[in-house]
Amino acid sequence: MEEKIEIGDILTLIDENDQEQEIEVLGTLSLDGMDYAAVGFVEEIQGETEEDIDVFFLRIENEDQLTVIEDDNEFEKVSAAFEEAVKE
Q1: Record's superkingdom (predicted)?
Q2: Residue 88: its pLDDT value, please?
């Protein structure tokens, strides 16, 4: 059985050019019965200040798979929810 995705996990992502990118899970949250992760590229996290990190939001499927959020409305809700969570 796979491990549940948690904050601090380092995962390898294959991009559209078949390049491997390491991403780190920066946060997770549940919204409308789905789980989501905020991730950033490890290279940026290690080399930049917090303001310079590009953060991406992905849906967690089956507790251990990350998928791109295709729906714009869903993405907007997730993005807003993570912003609220960061403020608290």
Answers
A1: Bacteria
A2: 75
